[in-house]
TrEMBL record, chains A, B, C, D:
InterPro entries, A to Z: Adenosylhomocyst_ase-like_sf, Adenosylhomocysteinase-like, Ado_hCys_hydrolase_NAD-bd, NAD(P)-bd_dom_sf, S-Ado-L-homoCys_hydrolase_CS
GO MF term set: adenosylhomocysteinase activity
Gene Ontology biological process: one-carbon metabolic process; S-adenosylmethionine cycle
Residue ranges of every copy of the S-adenosyl-L-homocysteine hydrolase NAD binding domain listed in the record: 240-403
Record protein name field: Adenosylhomocysteinase
Cofactor: record remark: Binds 1 NAD(+) per subunit.
Name of one Pfam family that matches: AdoHcyase
Organism encoding this protein: Vicia faba
Protein's job: Adenosylhomocysteine is a competitive inhibitor of S-adenosyl-L-methionine-dependent methyl transferase reactions; therefore adenosylhomocysteinase may play a key role in the control of methylations via regulation of the intracellular concentration of adenosylhomocysteine.
Residues bound to substrate: 64, 139, 205, 235, 239
Matches recorded under Gene3D superfamilies: Adenosylhomocysteinase-like, NAD(P)-binding Rossmann-like Domain
Entry EC number(s): 3.13.2.1
Length: 485, 485, 485, 485
């Protein structure tokens, strides 16, 4: 696939796998709309006032059917949008096609190379001569990283003509980033300066990206305000937990058809994602072993009847391994070598460094047998025993299945919409400094309330007297900031 | 696709979708073998003595990866095999290709028409001039039905030249059966006579087929001995229950990506299949309502915290409907009209008459929108509200996903292998009359024991003293025949 | 407590702990009646026709509140009743008092010695000069055993004056039985002859008693017809399973207040009782390990995510041990010595020989510290480490708590009522031979249906057309005899 | 029981129900110690340095076996202790006796009147002429309230001789508080002044008390530093959740023996306590309906498959009602009148105003039938239909059972010990102002880690490289403050 930007008849740029899948994508988008009441309510509530009028939004977030509904909510509210995916395997090509045809500039396809991935990210940021973006929707923080690295390079270049040196790192992905920036510098040495000046803020979707933002806030390098969407209760306690409870077994089943019942499954990490994964595996009839570094999370696992051990304790008897840590070097090739024949190894965390794919790929004599896309059997030469790695160690629920279902993504994405509206509305008020913010609790509660009716729930109303008794307003928010749900 | 039998280079007949998928099928078969210890043990135990030497086996059973391992177990034990699927949507084309290329005559593809389906069944029974089959593996009883109907027709024809009259029934499928038999009569009016004389017996896989066999036994029309594999404990209490617990959500997810959590799900029927479905939906976070005719099963559902209501009570508020009854006319078009927009309607029972597909298809003004194969949205003209029907009302776990996982099918299919061996071994002994038999308990226990080691289980051994105390042999069987598990 | 029979003002015999608890017992009986719709329906349906008019019923079954409702159902239907408990710890003294005062001759108290236990059993069988009983309600078969042993002894005595020799056995309980019979022979050497001639039949409540009955049927020694109530579906699949799921944690909590979450619990045996226990412990947050001899039950445990090991594998790391086998010598004193300090050991099976209490009691230097009645800490001299034994190794749910709750016992006891009516109605018809019978399925279904309304359930009705399609009557029974539920 | 303080032979004051139960209490305390590794580790770690040397601690917290282990941990660390219970029904008399005899001044018994309750609280605060307390352990804040109200009254009295007027409120409990303070003023008008000056701080156990503290902090009336123990993760996410999951069914079973399976249970409130209750009821086989005011908690309930409705929607069909809100007026007498006969109504929240007991007690013609202590049937005159109220609307798990089990209380109470040590250590440093504090996360993690070993858990250790990658210290704390677990 040559990396040439294409253009729709209406003049919108795009690069997707197969435009003929647009109709299929549209049908699934229509189904998803029914399952995404938060986003549809946002269209109804905010659409008439066009709050995003004039706003140019760049998004880097899995280009799925659910994201399509998010994008079309942003455009319904007046925004102009360019989009890329934040993972090389997570794009649903029919979703990308429908959006590219109908709504926004999309640069994404399932199975990008890393080179292609960063090319897409650059395109999503490239608003042409009129400039942009005004706002960023990020997931994992790659676009935010690109802008920060770009600006850093431009400053150095400005100072003394230094160009970024890809060979200065052995991180394959950063080599590409530096190359892109270096090549860009030759064309427009002020590109990221202009971008920085214009950007009103970013809303970040996930734990990993949020961690980067807090690091930048801590060292003072953050270039614009950021809203931490991940830590809205209606995001992290729903999407991360219930989303993974749904999509982990979905990914396992689509990739391997393996029976979960009776198996020993190891879940590395017992945060929200790990809790969702462990719950799904336990309910499916597996015996679940958790690995944890945090004694509190470990004690939670024990209270749920799960065993807490180290990876070394179970590596040779378990059948399924899932990493959920957000950390790196969780399952190394030396661990994989000890596993049972056809043990399944996968990662549901954001980045692909939880599993030592590099170690596996470079293991002398190892043989890779691709059963089907995203399902590989790797055979070690010593014992001719193989393990099955899903989605090349990347996000298995998006690589092997379709990610989280629409309903729970509606919670997450309604937070995104609200965050974007908030940033744009306050763009000149100075309300938001170059810091990381969480949405106020009453908006978090609002997101939840938009999703109750569809499930037939009826809320109880506080009387004034009761509200006073517990010192909250009748209409909420109902909990102190530190409440853990 | 023209209905022409093709021939491999080795001369074996077949008709499959795409022979180029054989390599992919072979890879998945190899994975499945690791998950099917019962079948692999059978190969190890019985292979050397070639118990099926000389036996010609016709099978009519979902042509999946798991069935491929069954077929190759039969051939490894010396049998010659011809195979068709017992459902128009359940074939996995790569499995069919691998078997056709490597092991047996296969006539099956995903998405057969009914016409094609019965053509395939006829082909599987057609052993050419040398005659056959000797044994039948049946699932749902269609091949057994064809033989019984065929013989009936031949007798009438013999008597007075009467030919079967397809117009005598308004059952679309029986019209095809009569047509096939009628056309066959012209070629060979003794075909089914010869078959009946030769057939040693049938082993039947599922509840629905077993029900037919007991009806034939009751009215004295059964033509050969039958082993009811379905009612082996290691079949019905495993495959039906744990298999469906796995494959129902798998089918729902692959077809619709719908979030199960928070939904109201109606499970019609609370037998083994219904129990598995209800468990899966409850564990996925749905609120499950059960419909039942049997007060005992209803009381079981209540004890599990499920609500027991009639369909009419919940038809307009539920989100997901699953039929598991083995009966007919469970969800009628008049029910479907009352459902919420995008309610999901599916059947996991063997035949497609649980859901009134005929009523739906012929509803005036109804519109069918195919989202993707096996996932259709049907829109009623009155309110423009749609429902989503999976696999055209047929077995949704095989139509929309890949059916039950290998491990649990290993239990079921090891019973099949044992049943076939038993029938063939006793072919001349008179041990089996024209009746329906269940495998003896010690064989049932053996099937279970073949599956324990792989899951790391260790059995406790009875002492002689303990065995005497509870009046069982030390080596089993351990339970009376009426024990319910 | 001197073993003297007392007499109410109305002249009814009894021996209970404390007659002043009768009012309390009556209040709890009234609560229980609301929870026992099957028994109350039986009173409404059969009361007017007084089917037990003239019948004298002896019952040996835990003298609890629930049994009180059973007894008063029998008397409401016209029977005269004498009752004893079938376990030395299971009597609820307030229930015994209320019944003794108001309805039937009761000989039972919590904490009988074995000597007292058999004295009570004898009293329950002693209908005085006018003779009796006509019918037996048995649980575990002790009264049935007494009659069979009694008759055997009378025959020997008649033949050559041989008296039973208590010293011929080292089973402490049989020594008492022989002594009682021997002493009785001196008074009335035809007592059991007369009893046998009169008794119409027995209905047996539990697995253990049923096992004995089948053994007697097999060796031809059964003296009268027996109805196996245990194997009614509405008994064994409800009382054994859901009853234990309720009463096991109840007993653990009342006896020890121990936190179940986080513990390793070993359930010996995975039959219906074991399934209920394992489910309760798993739900409470324990990690459950199952021991099994039967590969089928073991595979079921695995499918539910439970580990299957031998006792030896986990004896030194588990926290809670429950025996549910109906077998003997499951946990020996040599096992107990290896346990962690304060490991809890208990039995929920019928007899107290699952746990080696004799070995424990006679262990040199062992020290028993009674925390409270039925909760003992036994300290081994070697390591000063103790284990906690509940209810002296007897039925812990009745010894330490109040047994199964009313609702599920209503299912079991409605089967008892129906069985007793059936035996009495057919007393002269010859319908029942000296064999063991199970109630017909339509009565089983009836028992279930009597319990649905109270839980708000609505059954679906079969159409004639549907009933024909699955070959069952519209009004049931709906399943073949071999159906396992 | 005359309200006279008694004195042990060693001269320690006390007032308990029955000193003869001390031995029994001691045995159960010894069992509990094995289950409370956090407290026992604290004794081992801090005992040698006697950190509480010279400290006088007043505690107002359920006088149970678990609290006994807490008290003896405080004394083992050098403190002198006086104690009362914080609920009229929660004292375990054998625990009170053992502590009174062996370790601390106890004023508590099960079934205090409100008058007696406040007398006990006063006694616990009364350190005699030498003055005290230095530290407060509070649960619900009653002792803290007494001191604050006392000081307020002393100031008014000082100003113009005004005495508190019990008739100024219609809250029965506040009338008693005012009376006590009024009477005390006559004896020592500076009592609470002296107390305030001396008190170093309070550590508060529960949500309700914490709410009061934050209100006082907000309006500037808080007299001394407070540590909010409730919001330690190892308290509120364990004790509130897993403690209630254990003790709710325990209380239901001991009070009513009702079968939970099949019932409709309403849980009012879905906070941590409600989550634990709902989980227990669901696992027990009930169908659970949740009532909520907070849309986020409501959505959590839905994701777990629970129905969310208002009380009015289900009041007439549910069987069991549990209030967990911490609010008031949740179930009113007008609701109770609509309930089914023998519906069970109980409260597991801290105060008894969740259920309208006053309305029930004063309902014209209502009849109260005490089945047994803490289990009352209330019969309405109109329809002769009754409801069953547990523990007179107070904490049912402590009133009807024994509260939370030792293991989870070990987590809570280790936080208490750490909080008390912290307050005492920093008594002169000025570290703590008159505000509400939460323990730092590393201490929270420490509490958890003290409980892992006993459950056989093994933690994974972060490498330095991994710790840096996620920006945490190798030894923790591992999560940001806002993390919700």
């Amino acid at each position: 696939m040559a990396l040439l930007v294409e253009t729709t008849t209406s003049g919108r740029e795009y690069k997707v796998k197969d435009m003929s899948q647009a109709d299929f994508g549209r049908l699934e988008i229509e189904l998803a709309e029914v399952e995404m009441p938060g986003l549809m309510s946002s269209r109804a509530e905010f659409g008439p006032s066009q709050p995003f009028k004039g706003a140019k939004i760049t998004g880097s977030l899995h280009m799925t059917i659910q994201t399509a509904v998010l994008i079309e909510t942003l455009t319904a509210l007046g925004a102009e949008v360019r989009w890329c995916s934040c993972n090389i395997f997570s794009t649903q090509d029919h979703a990308a096609a429908a959006i590219a045809r109908d709504s926004a500039a999309v640069f994404a396809w399932k199975g990008e190379t890393l080179q292609e991935y960063w090319w897409c990210s650059e395109r999503a940021l490239d608003w042409g001569p009129s400039g942009g973006p005004d706002l960023i929707v990020d997931d994992g923080g790659d676009v935010t990283l690109l802008i920060h690295e770009g600006l850093k390079a431009e400053k150095l270049f400005e100072k003394d003509g230094t160009l970024p040196d890809p060979s200065s790192t052995d991180n394959a992905e950063m080599q590409i980033v530096y190359t892109i920036i270096r090549d860009g510098l030759k064309t427009d040495p002020k590109r990221y300066h202009k971008m920085k000046d214009r950007i009103v803020g970013v809303s970040e979707e996930t734990t990993t990206g949020v961690k980067r933002l807090y690091q930048m806030q801590a060292n003072g390098s953050l270039l614009f305000p950021a809203i931490n969407v991940n830590d809205s209760v209606t995001k992290s306690k729903f999407d991360n937990l219930y989303g993974c409870r749904h999509s982990l077994p979905d990914g396992l089943m689509r990739a391997t058809d393996v029976m979960i019942a009776g198996k020993i499954a190891v879940v590395c990490g017992y945060g929200d994602v790990g809790k969702g994964c462990a719950a799904a595996l336990k309910q499916g009839g597996a015996r679940v072993v958790v690995t944890e570094i945090d004694p509190i999370c470990a004690l939670q696992a024990l209270m749920e009847g799960l065993q807490v051990l180290t990876l070394a304790d179970v590596v040779s008897e378990a059948d399924i391994f899932v990493t959920t840590t957000g950390n790196k070097d969780i399952i190394m090739v030396s661990d994989m070598k000890k596993m049972k024949n056809n043990a399944i190894v996968c990662n549901i965390g954001h980045f692909d460094n939880e599993i030592d794919m590099h170690g596996l790929e470079t293991y002398p004599g190892v043989k890779r047998i691709t059963i089907k896309p995203q399902t590989d059997r790797w055979v070690f030469p010593e014992n001719n025993s193989g393990i099955i790695v899903l989605a090349e160690g990347r996000l298995m629920n998006l690589g092997c299945a379709t990610g989280h279902p629409s309903f729970v993504m509606s919670c997450s994405f309604t937070n995104q919409v609200i965050a974007q509206i908030e940033l744009w509305k306050e763009k000149t008020s100075g309300k938001y400094e170059k810091k990381v913010y969480v949405l106020p609790k009453h908006l978090d509660e609002k997101v939840a309330s938009l999703h109750l009716n569809q499930l037939g729930a009826k809320l109880t109303k506080l009387s004034k007297d009761q509200a006073d008794y517990i010192s909250v307003p009748v209409e909420g928010p109902y909990k102190p900031a530190h409440y853990r749900y």
